[in-house]
Design goal:
10% strand, globular, alpha/beta, 12 helices, five-stranded parallel β-sheet
């Protein structure tokens, strides 16, 4: 059975579902199914023990001679041990990160957790770094996998990219910026297609998925606190990319 060539590993609430749909519509690309629930195969040690054949049989039925075969699971970006497990099974895998302004991503993640019944804390409390750290320590069982209160910690992007760089060469990693993807979708999508060695597109039908209000009902104090928390992590990412992410500085 055909094995995957690439994986969209995150970040959550950054446009990964939209990218999935764009790629799924491309005639030269096969995307693993179902889209939901996202696979936790490389995140959950018990799932991982079931082996590669199990993964291919359950999610890659229908893959054939496409130029690229892939999957999306935003659980994989921050999951402990995921990069190593991915490399152990698919060492030549190409990896796609989509990164959104971490302040907006944290807020969006909060509203997603509220919408899905995971969080009942007021926004200002949920986005308090000290409170989040305490809540993370209390994760157990299923919450350890889905991490519903990890709003801030998921925004330290370069930390997670470094985990992947321990196992995969830099040329196997593509980093997109959500706001740039939204501004010029066709250009960004063709960048992805070139990375996957699939044919470029001359036009697309624009999609919007999983939308929530941007910075909805957030105080300037909380926004300022989050900007300060993420400043060094953003600078580390910019040094790695060799450029400023100007859309996050507005």
């Amino acid at each position: 059975m055909r094995e995957p060539d690439f994986m969209i590993v995150g970040a959550a609430r950054a446009g990964t579902t939209t990218l999935y749909h764009y790629l799924n519509a491309h005639p030269e690309i096969f995307m693993a199914k179902p889209l939901r629930p996202e696979s936790k195969f490389f995140l959950d040690p018990q799932e991982f023990k079931k082996g590669k054949a199990y993964l291919l049989e359950t999610r890659y039925q229908g893959a054939g001679d496409q130029k690229a075969v892939g999957e999306k699971s935003t659980h994989y970006m921050c999951g402990s041990g995921v990069a190593e497990r991915l490399h152990a099974i698919f060492p030549r895998l190409r990896l796609i990160f989509i990164l959104r302004d971490p302040v907006e991503r944290a807020v969006s993640n909060y509203w997603w957790s509220v919408k899905n019944g995971f969080d009942t804390l007021p926004l200002e409390d949920a986005l308090d770094w000290n409170k989040e750290s305490e809540r993370i320590k209390q994760y157990n069982n299923y919450f350890k996998l889905i991490q519903p209160f990890s709003y801030i910690i998921r925004g330290f992007y370069f930390k997670y990219i470094q985990d992947y760089l321990r196992f995969f060469p830099r040329e196997n990693i593509l980093i997109l910026i959500t706001e740039e993807l939204e501004h010029d979708t066709l250009k960004a999508l063709n960048q992805v297609l070139a990375f996957l060695r699939a044919s470029s597109l001359s036009n697309i039908r624009l999609l919007k998925t999983n939308e929530v209000p941007r910075l909805h009902d957030v105080s300037q104090k909380t926004i300022g606190n989050l900007i300060g928390i993420f400043r060094k992590a953003n600078e580390d990412l910019e040094r790695y990319l060799g450029r400023e992410i100007t859309v996050w500085r507005k």
